[in-house]
Fold this protein.
Amino acid sequence: MTAHAPSLQGRLDRHTSLVAAAVLLGAIYAGSTMVTPLYPLYQQRFGLSELTVTLVYATYVVGNLIALFAFGRVSDQAGRRPVSLVVLAVAIASALIFLLAIHPAMLFLARAASGLAIGVGAASATAWIAELQPGADKARASRLAAAVNLGGLAAGVVISGLLAQFAPWPLRLPFGAHLVVLVITAVLTALACETVASPARSPAQLSLEPRIGVPRELRLAFAAPAVTAFATFALLGFYAALLPNLLASSMHIHSPALSGTVVAELYLAGALTIVATPALAARTAMTAGLWLLPPGLAMLLWAQVAGSLVWLLAATALSGVACAWGFRGSLQEVNRIAPSQRRAELLSAYLLCCYAGNSVPAVGIAVLARAAGHLRADAVFAAVCALLAVVALVVGANEARKAN
């Protein structure tokens, strides 16, 4: 039940199936950021505090944990295509709940469902892309997955912000549009090639025993990419959860379109960086991303102190480059060291680090901000992320010396 010898059974050829898998990855990630520009509107609609809104954002980590611990390797056994179709069904349910939300509890439920879909779907789609990519070298597949991930995040937040600002039904229309995209994606997914040679034919053949742990012989090699992923996604999570509040508190700007555009700038800068630097080695990219994280964080803090949109845009561009190299390099390293029969399992462990970084620090900032203020909380966040970058650099350098 592994992907050693892909069967490639489907109505689409390998190349078109690769496009379908990339669309799948981008579509589910777009759903994770669509709500970002809408948080201030939900605050007004339901009378929510900033902390409650941040908890709504972070609730999807509950879905991630359920997905990764219970279903992290299910696509290795059941096949990429059927698992991806179930993932899309859950993503559609999440979009419907957001679309019909009339109570704050529905926001938590929708966010958890989104996390469940992304937790399973990202591991499955990333492994699918790697298997559909011709040749043994998976570097190109890693770059494609990272670029599509960031591109999907950018598309979700900017489209949602623009619709919320300039179209009717700001809390309904973005999710209606996403539903259309998900249905089209489901059609493409159903026609794509299956790459698992002998998928399970019944639920009884599946093992749902949690296996997220990294093999002992790979733990040291996995450490630097894992810490890099946590720090990188912590910065991404800061933008996705807290950027609208930063604009409101530091610059007195209340605009879903602007907040969506700034967050989209982060992701687009990352996607363009990945596309523009295909020859950059994985370890070099990861190291460069770690070196750029502290100055990006420092510029972000200065933008907040000065109340400057120009500095914010500059910090966002630099942070986008740092996150792109950190994410692409660390993902490529994990893909490189992963045994083919345990690829989705190891990717699930990697994605767990990503999602934890994306959610937990954002909640910590919101809690600390209630007692110490936004600027002090953000300064603590920046210091912790910079420290993690240093740790990852040291661990990665040690591993590189051993490899040589």
